[in-house]
Amino acid sequence: DCDIVLFNLLRSPSIASKEWVYEQYDHMVQLNTVILPGSDAAVLRLKGTNKAIAATTDCNSRYCYLNPYRGAQIAVAEAARNLVCSGAEPAAVTDCLNFGNPKKPDRYWQFKNCVQGITDACRFFNVSVVSGNVSFYNENPMGAIYPTPAIGMIGIIEDISKVCTQYFKNKDDLIILLGISIEELGGSEYLKLVHGLVRGDAPELNLKMERAVQLTTLEAIREGFVNSAHDLSEGGLAVGLAECCMSNKEKMIGAVINNLNFDVRTDALLFGESQSRIILSCSKKSLDQIKKIAKKHKTSLQVIGNTGGNRFSVSDNDNKLIDISLEELQEVWSKALGRYIDSSS
User: Fold this and answer.
1) Residue 242: which H helix or E strand, with range?
2) 3-state DSSP call for residue 139?
3) Which terminal residue of the chain, N or C, has fewer Cβ atoms less than 10 Å from its own Cβ?
4) Facing residues of 307 across strands?
5) Which residues have CB under 8 Å from 227's CB, separation 6+?
6) Blockwise average pLDDT, block size 10, the chain, 345 residues
7) Are 9 and 188 in contact (CB under 8 A)?
8) For 214, how many CA atoms within 13 A lie in the half-sphere containing its CB?
């Protein structure tokens, strides 16, 4: 039951809204915050200029446990993808490397491969690692934590008027999927939450494809063709689209997804975590321009539906896979973290 799976994923601490945390501190110091918490990246204006800085943090420690080298690369790639979705060009990295006892060969192997993954990915994206720290011996008699090379990344927005957020803005906009969905569930939140398994390999990552998707998104945003942009990560396509519908509580806009032409089994299509994918929304008149940009960068593009209404609906070959009201989704997603904290206190 895809409805039930989606509800369960939205309740997961990894995916649930973090508003319980960020509403407890002042995120408007000196009134420089342009994009508030809750989108792909925070954006701060640089007073006296037309520029802004975007900032984000990322890491999926489960990926790094299954494949330290690739998991670390994904952390860098996703951080860059988040910045691009805000309209920023990635510029610099700080890392926070958290591991078990390095005197144990398997822990040291995890550390070595994560560092190499970060190095290679940052060189590929031409971003500098300007600072960082390492924390070892994070374990107890039951074992070590998952290797967690957390990536903090900032990017530059040249024109503050061109910032972008993840939530849908208008009714009757087209919904575009950039990138390719493949059949892979290894390391996914779905596999862990629904089937109780941490198995398989981390998702595939093609850095050239990743860069092409990012360049397409950044150019389309800068040219003013994009109304919203959101990267796909934990929870996959269904979770990402649901977040686009409900991230702005003041103006939630539904979606009808009815053109998923991928030869992929249903659970992998909806909840698989294939990398290098971004959801865009745009007006119908902007579609041809975005297609030209995608073609220039050799990026796969597919119109998968349109915005509107007060429900999130996904169908495949006339079979209804998901059909849930936005109010129900918002109730689960926005309050889940607080309920976890309350139940454990």
Assistant:
1) helix 236-246
2) strand
3) C
4) 255
5) 168, 169, 170, 173, 281, 282, 283
6) 95 92 80 86 92 96 98 98 97 97 96 98 96 96 95 96 95 96 95 94 97 98 97 96 93 94 89 97 97 96 96 88 95 90 76
7) no
8) 23
